[in-house]
Structures are given as C-alpha cells and as structure tokens.
Automatic annotation (TrEMBL):
Pfam families per the UniProt record, alphabetical: LOR
Organism: Digitaria exilis
Record protein name field: Protein LURP-one-related 5-like
Family, as annotated: Belongs to the LOR family.
The organism's taxonomic lineage, starting at the top: Eukaryota, Viridiplantae, Streptophyta, Embryophyta, Tracheophyta
PANTHER family linked: PROTEIN LURP-ONE-RELATED 2, PTHR31087
C-alpha cells in the first residue's frame, strides 16, 4: 500500500520518541474492505506504522430495515464487536455487543452476547450528524472499576451519555467527546497526502484520519465510527483504485 493511504516512513521517523501511552493514537481509515474486491464497502484501518489494525469486511449498503449485523474485527480477523440496527427507530439507534469467534460462522442471539453500548442520533432530522453513545451498565461499571453490583446479564443502559459526537461526520470534521466532562476523546479529520509539514493534496472522503486520545478504548471508538457511517445517510460511491 502506498504512502497515500497510511503515514509515510519519513513521517514516522519524524515522530517524537515518546511512550505510546502519552500521545494520541493516529489511524488512517480507508472506506474499503480489506478483502480487496473493487467497489466493496467495508473499512480498513491502519495504525501509524502502516499495519492493519481493524477491519470491517464487505457489508451491504441496503436500507437499515434490511441491514444485518456489522462485525468489527482486528487486523488478524478476530471478531471484537458486533453492531446491529434497532428496527423502527426514529433516531437511527444501533446496539453494540461483544463478538466471539463463532460470529464468523453463524449469527448469535443478542441474548447470548453482552451489550456494550447503544448509539443514536440526537435528532430525527436527516441533516444532523450529532449523536450520543450510552454505555451499558456493565461496561460503564468495568470502565470505572466500580463495585456498585450492577449485573452483566441485563442490558441496562446508563442514563447519561458516555460520548457525544459533535460536528459533521459527513464532511469528515467531527469530534467525539466524553459525556462526563466534555473533553475530546477522539476526532475525525480529512486526510492529506504527503507529510504533515508539506501536504500535497486533500484525499477524498473515503480516506480520513482518526486520532484517539490516551486512555480511550480504540475498538469502541472505531465501532462508533462505523455506526456514524451508517446513520449519516451519505450516498455511497465505490472507490475505483488503480493498480499503478
């Protein structure tokens, strides 16, 4: 893969030599399945070393009522999270569950999986890209190391949002903020070709940057990005790539 898609070697050499725990994680998101078929509509996500970190392989762009499960995997194809639309939802609600290896072979029942979060748009208006993410009670308890005794068997959802998405995802200019204090957890921006000091050109919307702050679960943020792509109702145009 060329340096038009993932950060160049020069850019990586110029990066300061500090602990990855102290600086944001930078990813390049490519709206194309890693399966490599021309015109597929999945996701390939590369870290700042150019390695495949996450993927969503070749799913359908059918209307939400007919859409099936989206499976977020790591770079090796191990299932991480499954995403399913909530039928008959005015605010385009989606539910996220933990995924297991058998998710690749058969569709498990939601009752057999642990809910991670629910996500929906703040407004029923199609022109709005703003959304909220509510973690399940069990996930919120684990994240805060709480001993409140909330059980994992019931998909209770926290009343206050864990994350808020602000800005325009359709224009690849938005931020994911923590609901508790409003601090930035991640941001999405247009991707420029070349190094940061001398950008050559801005790439199409099919390639964009994702910056995740330290201490934030990257898989959860990537799942949010996948759902945002589905609820923002942006017309899909297959990317035609040249082999040259």
């Amino acid at each position: 893969m060329s340096n038009r898609i993932h950060p160049s070697d020069a850019a990586r050499r110029a990066a300061p030599d500090v602990s990855s725990d102290c600086r944001p994680a930078v990813y390049t998101v490519w709206k194309r399945s890693s399966m490599g078929f021309q015109g597929t509509d999945g996701f390939s996500v590369y870290d700042d070393a150019g390695s495949l970190a996450f993927r969503v392989d070749n799913y359908s762009r059918r209307r939400k009522l007919c859409a099936g499960e989206l499976l977020l995997m790591d770079g090796q194809g191990t299932p991480l999270l499954s995403l399913r639309p909530q039928l008959l939802s005015l605010h385009d609600r989606w539910n996220c569950y933990t995924a297991t290896e058998d998710a690749l072979e058969k569709k498990p029942s939601p009752t057999s999986q642990q809910q991670v979060f629910t996500m929906s748009k703040c407004s029923a208006l199609q022109s709005s890209d703003e959304a909220e993410v509510h973690m399940s009670a069990a996930s919120a308890a684990r994240a805060s190391s709480s001993s409140s005794g909330l059980g994992c068997k019931h998909p209770e959802v926290a009343s206050a949002p864990a994350y808020r998405i602000e800005g325009s995802f359709s224009r690849r200019s938005c931020k994911i903020r923590r609901g508790s204090d409003g601090k930035e957890a991640a941001r999405i921006a247009r991707k420029n070709a070349g190094v940061a000091s001398r950008p050559v050109a801005t790439l199409s919307d099919d390639v964009f940057s994702l910056v995740v702050r330290p201490g934030v679960d990257v898989a959860t943020i990537m799942a949010i990005v996948v759902v945002m792509d589905r609820i923002c109702h942006r017309p899909y145009t297959p990317m035609v790539c040249s082999s040259q």
